[in-house]
Amino acid sequence: MAKYHTYERRGKSLRRNEPHPIWRGIGCVTMLLVPAMSLGLSIIMIDLALKNGIAIPEGLLGLPIMPSLLFRVPGLVKLLIWIESLNNLYAILAGAFTLTIFLGGVLALLYAFAYRLVGPPRYTELDAPPPNVKTKRYKR
To answer: Is 37 a member of any domain?
Structure first.
């Protein structure tokens, strides 16, 4: 007999009904891919819209203008000059924001559908059973 532990057999450890770790990876990749895809699609869409004559508000087109106060910060000067050289930046960012919301919603719906098919059951053995209520049709 051992002095500090018992010889009792331990029961099987219950596996928790948690999602597989791959689902967390898919969520992480989605958080990185959706903004990158929407930015790329936005650049393509703005270029195609301008070539085909689709009206885009003029306030969104052209080169962005940064406040002169920001140019006093020495580390930001090169970055601000690069940002000011980007053409149609406001239109691209507005389109990217819109596409991010749209693509995020679509992928969330697909993710939820796949999780519902593959994920853990809705009810476990610890949940109360659904009520068995039989009602009669109301007649006046």
So the answer is: yes
Nearest to 124, CA basis, from 22, 13, 15:
15
- Answer whether residue 77 is part of any domain: yes
Using alpha carbons only, what angle is made at residue 25 by residues 19 and 34, rounded to the nearest 5 degrees?
Answer: 125
Q: How many domains does the chain have?
A: 1
Task: Give the domain range for residue 74.
Answer: 22-118
pLDDT in tens, 84-117: 999 999 999 999 999 999 999 998 898 889 888 8
User: How many residues are listed for the chain in this entry?
Assistant: 140
Query: How far, in Å, CA of 115 to CA of 15, rounded?
Result: 18
Q: Residue 65 falls within a domain, yes or no?
A: yes
- Reported pTM: 0.68
Within 13 A of 54's CA, how many CA atoms are on the CB side?
A: 9
Q: Considering the domain boundaries, does residue 32 fall inside one? A: yes
